[in-house]
C-alpha cells in the first residue's frame, strides 16, 4: 500500500480522470527529454508541489517539472476520500492566500471540495503541462560537478534539475498496521486513506480500528450506513466542538465582490488560531481552559459515566493532535454502534479478538490507523555531496536548517521538513513561508548561476540546538507517545512557536548562512 | 525471585493471549458435576466470577495511575484479562446450567457495595493502595480458591480453562509483588507517612467499609463449600512471605497494613475483629436493593459468549 491509486471509475475522482486523459495525449517523458535539466524539479503534486509551481511562475520561473507518482494531482485530498473526510482548519485559512476561493460552501469544507479547489489551481495557473504523472521518484542524487539533481523513477526514467523541491507530503504513505493475524482475516479490509468506494456497507457489520483525526470523521458516516459499527480505541484524544456551518449566499457574494472582506476573515481566523498556540503548544492557563472546554463537550454529549471515562484522555491537550467533531460522540452512542477499549490481541479469520477473550466478528475492518511517518529516514534515498546519504545522517532524528535546507545537500528544498509542523494553525500558512523561501533560493541559484547554494554546517547546528531547547518546554514533549516523536522521544516534526514566529524565521534569506560555488 | 523486567513482561503478556473460543465449551465432561456439588458450586462460581470482575475494575483504575507507560499498559492488559477470567467462568457456569436464562448472576449486596465504591472512587485512589490490596486478593484466589476448585471439580473443561487463567494469574502476581517492592523503595517512591495518608481519606474509609464485610462473607461461603480453613492461612502466609521477601517489600507500609488485616480475616478466633465485621455483614444484608443506584455500565460488559 505504498503507492496511491486513483481509481478512474469513481464519481469523486471525475476531475482526476479528465486530467489523466489530458496527459495521456502528450508524449510521455522520454529519456532524451528528461536529460535536459530543468531549472527546478518538484517531487509531488499535492498542495505543496503545486503551490511551489505557482510561486515559481509568479516569480517568472517557468522552467520546472513536477513529478507525481499517482495519475492525478491532489495528494492528501485525492487519497483521503473516505466518507466524512474534511479539513479541520476553516477553509478560508486552509487555502492559499495567493489564490483565494470566495465560494467555499462550508466553514470546514469536505475533501471533494478541497480537491476541486486544487484542480482549480492547476487550471488557473496552467500547471498541467508541467506535471509528469506516474513518476514514482525512488532516488534523488546530487552531482557536485554539474550542480545538478537527478531524480530516478521506479521505471528507471531520469529527470534533472538545478534545484530540487521535495514536496512528497508528510502523510502520503500508509499501510495496514502490524497486528498479529492481519493476513488471517478473510473479510474485507479498507485503509482510510485508500478508500474503497465500491464496497457497500449497508447491512454489514463493520469494525473501525483507530480513533484519530480520520477515525472520528469516518465513524459517524459509517454508523449511518452500516448495520453495526464497533469502534476499537487504544487511546482517546481530546475532542473540541466544531463550529461548522454552511456559508450563506450573501457571504459568498461579499467575498466575491469585496476580496478585502475575505482577507479580513482570513486574518481573523489566523489570529484566532494563533491564540490557540498558547493552549496547545505550551502548558499554560489556557491549556487548562482548552481542556475544560473539551471536557464540557464530552459531558454534554455523553451521559454514561463509564463511557465518559473511556473517552477521557490522560495526556495534556495538544500533546497529540487536537480533534474537532460534533457528531463523533453522539454516533458512538447510537444503538448500532459500540466503543471497545479492550486491547486487540489479534485478528482472526472472522474478526478481531480482544484481550477480554471475545472474538468480535465483522464483515469489514476499516483501518483509520494513520500514516507511515518517517522521523529519521527519508522516503527515498537522497544523496548529497561526497556521497552523503541523508537517511543515514538522520538516523537519530531528522534535522534541517529552518526546516527547509540541509547542509551537504545543496540546492535542495523541503516542504514540511523537520520541525515545520503546525499544531494549531493551517499547514498552508506554514507552507506559504516555505514556498517563498525556496523561491528566493532558486532565484539566487539562477541569477548567480551558482552550482551550489549549501547551508553551513555550523549555522544549521546552532539553529537546531535552539530548536530542541524550545521544544523541550512544549506539550508535545510532555510525555505522551505520538507520531510527532521518534521512539526515543526526539521531536523532529513540530515547530515550537507561533505561525507568526515561523513566518519571521522564513522571511529572510540570509546569504551569509550559505556556502556558494 | 528478583525484581522483574517490566518491558519484557509486557512483551510476554502480549504474546501469550488466549480467547474463549480456544476452548470447546460443549466438550463432554459437564456431567461430572455431582448433584450434591451443584448448588454450592453455583454460589462459589458466582462469587469467583464477581471477584474477577471487581479485580478487573481495580486494574482499570491502576492503569490510569501507574507511574510509567509500561506499567500503565500492563495494567490495561490485566484489566482485560480479569474480564476474560470472569467471562470464562461465566461460560463454565453456562455449561453447567447455572445461569438462569442468559442472566449474569446477581452480585450479593456486599459485592454491590464494592462495585459502587470502585465505580465512584477507585480512580481517585493512589495507585499503591490498590497495588497492595490486589496482589493479596489474587494470592487468595490463586492459592486457595482455584486450587480448591480444581481438586473438587472433575470436569476436564474446567481444568482446561483454569490452566489458562492460572498462567495469567502467575504474571499478575509477578508484576504485583514487583510493584509492591518498587513502592517500598524509599528514594523512588514516597515516604511512609505520605503513603499512609489516604487512610484518613473518607473516600478510602468508605472503601474499607465495603470491602471488609465482603471478605468475611466470602470466607463463609467458601468454607460452606468445604474449603479447609488452613488453605486460607497458607495463602496469607504466602502473601506475607513473597511480599516481605526483600527489605523494599517490607518497607512498603501498605504491605504491612494489608498483611495484618489479612491475618485478622482468616483467623476466625479473633473476636475483636469478627464480631463487629460480622455485624456489618448482617447490617448490609438489610439494605434494600432499591436503595442502591443502578449498576454501572461496565458491569454490563460481561458475557459468556465467545463471539460477539
Ligand atoms: C485526512 C487529513 C486531513 C487533514 N486536514 C488538515 C487540515 O485541516 N489542516 C491542515 O493544515 N492540514 C491538514 N492535513 C495535513 C495535510 O497533509 C497537509 O495540509 C497538506 O495537504 C499536505 O500537502 P503536501 O503537498 O505537502 O502533501 P500531499 O498532499 O501528501 O502531496 C504529496 C504528493 O506527492 C506524491 N508523492 C509522494 N511520494 C512521491 C514519490 N516518491 N514520487 C513522486 N510523487 C510522490 C503523492 O502522491 C502526493 O500527490 C490533513 C491531512 C490528512 C491526511
Ligand atoms: Fe483473575
Ligand atoms: Fe489476576
Total beta-strand segments of chain B: 0
Number of helices of chain A: 15
SS-derived structural category of chain A = alpha/beta
- The number of helical segments of chain B is 12
- Give the C-alpha Rg of chain B: 19 Å
Q: CATH class of the largest domain in chain A, anyone?
A: Alpha Beta
CATH top level class name of chain B: Mainly Alpha
What is the correct CATH architecture of the largest domain in chain A? 3-Layer(bba) Sandwich
CATH superfamily heading of the largest domain in chain A? FAD/NAD(P)-binding domain
Beta fraction of chain B: under 5%
Helix fraction of chain A by DSSP (H/I, runs of at least 4) = 25-40%
Radius of gyration of chain A: 23 Å
The low-confidence runs of chain B, each spanning 5 or more residues with pLDDT under 50, are none
* N-to-C span of chain B: 40 Å
- Percent helix of chain B, as a range, is 55-70%
Greatest chain-chain contact:
A-B, 22 and 27 residues
Q: Describe the main β-sheet of chain B briefly.
A: none
Q: Averaged pLDDT of chain B, please?
A: 84
Care to describe what's here?
The complex is a heterodimer of chains A (about 525) and B (about 300). Chain A has about 525 residues and is of the alpha/beta class. In chain A, strands 1, 2, 3, 4, 5, 6, 17 and 18 form an eight-stranded mixed β-sheet that branches. A five-stranded parallel β-sheet of chain A has the order 7-16-8-9-12, with helices on one face. A three-stranded antiparallel β-sheet of chain A has the order 13-14-15, with no helix packed on it. In chain A, β1, α3 and β2 form a beta-alpha-beta unit. In chain A, α3 crosses α13, α7 packs across α8 and α8 packs across α9. Chain A is globular and about 65 Å long. The N terminus of chain A is likely disordered. Chain B is mainly α and about 300 residues long. Chain B has a single domain, classed as Ferritin (Up-down Bundle). Chain B starts with 5 loop residues before the first helix and ends in a 23-residue tail after the last helix. At the A-B interface, α10, β14 and β15 of A face α3 of B. The structure holds flavin-adenine dinucleotide and fe (ii) ion (2 copies). The site of flavin-adenine dinucleotide (FAD) has 36 residues of chain A, from α3 and α6.
Amino acid at each position: 500500500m505504498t503507492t496511491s491509486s486513483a481509481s478512474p471509475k469513481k464519481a469523486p475522482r471525475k476531475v482526476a480522470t479528465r486530467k489523466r486523459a489530458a496527459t495521456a495525449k502528450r508524449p510521455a517523458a522520454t529519456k532524451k527529454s528528461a536529460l535536459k535539466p530543468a531549472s527546478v524539479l518538484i517531487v509531488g503534486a499535492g498542495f505543496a508541489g503545486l503551490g511551489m509551481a505557482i510561486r515559481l511562475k509568479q516569480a517568472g520561473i517557468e522552467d520546472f517539472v513536477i513529478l507525481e507518482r499517482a495519475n492525478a494531482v491532489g495528494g492528501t485530498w485525492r487519497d483521503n476520500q473516505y466518507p466524512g473526510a474534511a479539513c479541520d482548519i476553516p477553509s478560508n485559512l486552509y487555502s492559499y492566500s495567493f489564490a483565494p476561493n470566495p465560494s467555499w460552501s462550508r466553514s470546514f469544507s469536505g475533501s471533494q471540495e478541497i480537491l476541486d479547489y486544487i484542480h482549480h489551481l492547476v487550471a488557473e495557473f496552467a500547471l498541467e503541462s508541467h506535471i509528469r504523472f506516474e513518476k514514482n521518484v525512488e532516488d534523488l542524487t546530487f552531482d557536485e560537478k554539474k550542480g545538478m539533481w537527478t531524480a530516478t523513477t521506479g521505471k528507471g526514467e531520469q529527470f534533472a534539475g538545478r534545484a530540487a523541491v521535495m514536496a512528497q507530503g508528510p502523510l502520503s504513505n500508509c499501510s495496514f498496521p502490524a497486528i498479529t493475524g492481519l493476513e488471517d482475516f478473510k473479510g474485507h479490509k479498507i485503509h482510510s486513506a485508500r478508500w474503497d468506494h465500491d464496497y457497500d456497507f449497508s447491512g454489514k457489520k463493520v469494525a473501525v480500528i483507530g480513533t484519530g483525526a480520520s477515525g472520528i470523521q469516518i465513524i459517524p458516516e459509517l454508523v449511518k450506513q452500516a448495520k453495526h459499527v464497533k469502534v476499537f480505541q487504544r487511546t482517546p484524544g481530546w475532542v473540541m466542538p466544531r463550529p461548522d456551518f454552511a456559508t450563506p449566499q450573501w457571504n459568498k457574494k461579499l467575498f466575491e465582490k469585496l476580496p478585502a472582506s475575505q482577507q479580513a476573515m482570513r486574518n481573523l481566523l489566523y489570529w484566532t488560531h494563533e491564540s490557540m498556540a498558547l493552549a496547545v503548544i505550551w502548558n499554560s492557563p489556557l491549556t487548562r481552559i482548552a481542556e475544560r472546554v473539551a471536557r464540557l463537550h464530552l459531558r454534554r454529549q455523553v451521559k454514561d459515566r463509564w463511557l465518559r471515562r473511556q473517552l477521557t484522555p490522560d495526556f495534556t491537550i495538544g500533546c497529540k493532535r487536537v480533534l474537532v467533531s460534533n457528531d463523533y460522540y453522539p454516533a458512538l452512542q447510537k444503538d448500532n454502534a459500540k466503543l471497545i477499549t479492550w486491547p486487540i490481541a489479534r485478528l482472526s479469520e472472522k474478526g478481531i479478538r480482544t484481550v477480554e477473550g471475545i472474538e468480535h466478528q465483522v464483515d469489514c475492518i476499516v483501518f483509520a490507523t494513520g500514516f507511515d511517518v518517517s522521523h529519521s529516514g527519508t522516503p527515498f534515498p537522497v544523496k548529497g555531496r561526497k556521497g552523503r546519504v541523508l537517511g543515514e545522517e538522520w538516523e537519530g532524528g531528522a534535522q534541517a536548517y529552518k526546516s527547509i535546507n540541509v547542509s551537504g545537500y545543496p540546492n535542495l528544498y523541503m516542504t514540511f521538513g523537520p520541525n515545520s509542523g503546525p499544531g494549531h494553525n493551517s499547514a498552508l500558512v506554514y507552507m506559504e513561508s516555505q514556498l517563498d523561501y525556496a523561491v528566493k533560493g532558486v532565484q539566487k541559484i539562477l541569477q548567480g548561476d551558482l552550482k551550489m547554494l549549501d547551508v553551513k554546517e555550523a549555522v544549521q547546528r546552532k539553529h537546531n540546538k535552539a530548536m530542541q531547547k524550545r521544544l523541550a518546554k512544549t506539550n508535545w514533549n510532555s510525555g505522551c507517545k505520538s507520531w510527532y516523536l521518534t521512539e526515543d522521544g526526539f521531536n523532529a516534526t513540530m515547530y515550537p512557536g507561533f505561525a507568526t514566529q515561523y513566518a519571521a524565521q522564513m522571511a529572510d534569506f540570509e546569504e551569509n548562512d550559505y556556502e556558494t560555488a | 525471585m528478583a525484581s522483574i523486567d517490566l518491558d519484557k513482561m509486557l512483551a510476554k503478556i502480549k504474546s501469550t493471549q488466549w480467547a474463549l473460543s480456544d476452548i470447546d465449551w460443549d466438550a463432554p465432561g459437564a456431567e461430572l458435576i455431582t448433584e450434591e456439588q451443584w448448588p454450592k458450586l453455583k454460589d462459589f462460581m458466582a462469587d469467583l466470577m464477581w471477584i474477577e470482575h471487581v479485580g478487573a475494575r481495580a486494574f482499570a483504575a491502576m492503569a490510569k495511575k501507574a507511574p510509567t507507560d509500561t506499567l500503565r499498559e500492563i495494567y490495561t492488559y490485566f484489566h482485560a484479562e480479569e474480564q476474560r477470567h470472569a467471562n470464562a467462568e461465566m461460560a463454565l457456569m453456562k455449561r453447567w446450567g447455572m445461569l438462569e436464562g442468559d442472566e449474569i448472576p446477581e452480585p450479593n449486596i456486599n459485592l454491590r457495595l464494592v462495585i459502587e465504591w470502585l465505580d465512584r472512587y477507585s480512580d481517585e485512589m493512589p495507585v499503591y493502595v490498590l497495588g497492595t490490596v490486589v496482589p493479596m486478593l489474587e494470592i487468595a484466589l490463586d492459592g486457595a480458591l482455584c486450587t480448591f476448585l480444581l481438586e473438587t471439580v472433575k470436569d476436564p473443561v474446567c481444568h482446561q480453562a483454569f490452566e489458562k487463567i492460572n498462567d495469567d494469574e502467575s504474571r499478575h502476581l509477578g508484576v504485583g509483588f514487583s510493584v509492591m517492592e518498587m513502592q517500598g523503595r524509599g528514594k523512588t517512591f514516597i515516604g511512609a507517612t505520605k503513603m499512609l495518608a489516604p487512610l484518613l481519606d473518607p473516600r478510602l474509609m468508605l472503601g474499607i467499609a465495603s470491602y471488609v464485610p465482603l471478605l468475611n462473607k466470602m470466607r463463609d461461603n467458601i468454607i460452606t463449600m468445604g474449603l479447609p480453613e488452613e488453605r486460607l492461612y497458607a495463602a496469607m502466609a504466602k502473601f506475607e512471605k513473597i511480599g516481605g521477601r526483600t527489605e523494599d517489600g517490607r518497607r512498603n507500609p501498605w504491605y504491612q497494613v494489608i498483611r495484618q488485616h489479612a491475618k485478622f480475616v482468616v483467623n476466625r478466633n479473633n473476636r475483636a475483629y469478627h464480631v463487629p465485621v460480622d455485624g456489618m455483614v448482617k447490617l448490609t444484608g438489610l439494605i434494600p436493593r432499591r436503595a442502591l443506584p443502578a449498576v454501572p455500565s461496565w458491569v454490563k460488559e460481561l458475557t459468556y459468549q465467545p463471539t460477539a
